[in-house]
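Subject: design request, 128 residues
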């Protein structure tokens, strides 16, 4: 039920975004995603990390730090896709894996150990 409700909430968010005119071309969406990821790893998460340190919230700091490191990876991945799009090329259908501990996202094969959190290979889930 919780997963079904989460899917329904995703539908609602997509519908609201459509009404707001927030879904554009693939290029527009990639550029927006790149900007969002850059903001997250360069400004948002560093501020969260600083606040967590000031409040001695070690678990929160670790969570924010992991997310911050992964957002930088997402920024690079989106930039690579945008570069391919602008060049008129398409990335081969390559599996994408996501670490279920930190969110690290990799194309191709899941690593034996996550370079972000140290998680083992089995913690990666194939998406798509």
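Subject: RE: design request

Done. Sequence follows.
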């Amino acid at each position: 039920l919780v997963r079904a409700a989460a899917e329904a909430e995703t539908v609602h968010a997509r519908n609201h975004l459509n009404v707001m005119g927030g879904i554009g071309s693939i290029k527009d969406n990639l550029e927006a995603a790149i900007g969002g990821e850059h903001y997250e790893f360069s400004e948002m998460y560093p501020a969260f990390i600083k606040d967590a340190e000031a409040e001695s919230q070690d678990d929160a700091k670790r969570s924010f730090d992991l997310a911050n490191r992964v957002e930088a990876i997402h920024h690079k991945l989106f930039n690579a896709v945008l570069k391919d799009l602008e060049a008129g090329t398409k990335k081969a259908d390559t599996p994408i894996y996501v670490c279920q501990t930190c969110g690290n996202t990799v194309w191709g094969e899941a690593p034996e150990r996550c370079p972000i959190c140290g998680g083992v290979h089995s913690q990666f889930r194939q998406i798509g």
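The first strand starts at residue 96 and ends at 99.
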